[in-house]
């Protein structure tokens, strides 16, 4: 029964350790030659890192093998797991298409190749046996030049059947030196009618209030309620939703204890700011979305009523969910119709 929406999942970090290990065994043994057995690889792949930069280095391991030829292999297994084990009805996959193009090509050739990547991901994401509504968020990157990031926005605008928004990722500490560029790029995206989110206020290095007016959702954003709660009324006024990914903050060293998130949820609920609970990098974390829900409940960070509010918020803020209602409401309507039909027959 598909019930949930996932708004923040990276394609590079979505591959679970076992699937990645099997791929390397068959096609790239040199990448796992230093591991004598799978358990060593899993420990390396999923263990916490000290900083966000160290954590993001793991993405390069997966990006190097996510090519035009291999993306259908990884996406099929991702969607199969998301449907069967996570009960997802809706999934937004985010990634930087430029980083899936061949490195030996020139910058302009790689830009031209990005459209093929988007099409391959889009077609591979539509599987009749696993009917999840999917869409892509294309990530600009803090290490890529302006020309490439602008081309990513153009690509999003030209492929609305596959792409629902743009993002900026790659390490939030690097935004400051190019802030005028990011504002210009987000202005450009909004002028084209492209929806926006962005990795900001994830760490203490990523607090950029000047970017907030250009975002429709906020990637992570936990430092707003933790350090800058005075910004919450404006976030609520703009109807911006925080994409909170609980396990991430332990894996990156951003938080030392999951219970620190209680203040995030309490202050956001009090201010009327919506939160969508997400996984970020389900493969790197070796977790699935229901596990994130269970963890928050187990540590009394939220209660069941608040969990339901977050689940409803995820559908309400989904960029490409095609229905007015979320699946539970649709299912309840279907069950009510069947019940009425049954009672009519009995009468």
UniProtKB/TrEMBL annotation:
Its EC number is 3.5.4.4. InterPro entries: A_deaminase_dom, Ado/ade_deaminase, Metal_Hydrolase. GO terms for biological process: adenosine catabolic process; hypoxanthine salvage; inosine biosynthetic process. One of its GO terms (molecular function) is adenosine deaminase activity. Residues 5-320 form the Adenosine deaminase domain. One of its GO terms (cellular component) is cytosol. PANTHER family: ADENOSINE DEAMINASE. Its cofactor is Zn(2+). Belongs to the metallo-dependent hydrolases superfamily. Adenosine and AMP deaminases family. Pfam families: A_deaminase (PF00962). Keywords: Hydrolase, Metal-binding, Zinc. This is adenosine deaminase. It comes from Richelia sinica FACHB-800.
């Amino acid at each position: 029964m598909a019930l949930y929406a996932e708004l923040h999942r990276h394609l590079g970090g979505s591959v679970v350790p076992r699937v990645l290990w099997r791929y390397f065994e068959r096609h790239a043994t040199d990448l796992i030659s230093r591991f004598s057995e799978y358990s060593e690889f899993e420990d390396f792949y999923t263990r916490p890192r000290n900083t966000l930069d160290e954590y993001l280095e793991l993405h390069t391991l997966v990006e190097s093998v996510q090519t035009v030829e291999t993306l259908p292999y990884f996406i099929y297994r991702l969607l199969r797991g998301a449907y069967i084990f996570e009960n997802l009805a809706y999934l937004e996959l985010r990634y930087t298409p430029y980083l899936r193009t061949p490195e030996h090509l020139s910058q302009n050739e790689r830009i031209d190749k990005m459209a093929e990547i988007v099409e391959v991901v889009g077609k591979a994401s539509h599987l009749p046996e696993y009917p999840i509504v999917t869409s892509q968020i294309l990530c600009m990157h803090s290490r890529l030049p302006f020309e490439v990031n602008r081309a990513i926005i153009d690509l999003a605008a030209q492929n609305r059947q596959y792409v629902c928004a743009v993002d900026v990722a790659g390490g939030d500490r690097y935004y400051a030196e190019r802030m005028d560029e990011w504002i210009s790029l987000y202005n450009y995206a909004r002028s084209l009618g492209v929806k926006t989110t962005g990795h900001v206020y994830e760490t203490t290095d990523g607090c950029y209030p000047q970017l907030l007016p250009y975002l429709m959702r906020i990637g992570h954003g936990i430092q707003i309620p933790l350090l800058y709660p005075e910004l919450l009324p404006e976030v609520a006024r703009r109807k911006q939703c925080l994409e909170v990914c609980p396990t991430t903050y332990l894996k990156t060293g951003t938080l030392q204890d999951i219970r620190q998130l209680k203040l995030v949820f309490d202050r956001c609920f009090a201010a009327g700011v919506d939160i969508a609970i997400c996984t970020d990098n389900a493969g790197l974390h070796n977790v699935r979305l229901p596990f994130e829900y269970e963890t928050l409940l187990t540590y009394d960070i939220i209660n069941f009523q608040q969990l339901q509010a977050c689940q409803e918020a995820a559908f309400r803020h989904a960029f490409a969910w095609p229905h007015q209602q979320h699946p539970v409401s649709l299912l309840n309507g279907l069950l009510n119709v069947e019940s009425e039909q049954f009672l009519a027959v009995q009468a």
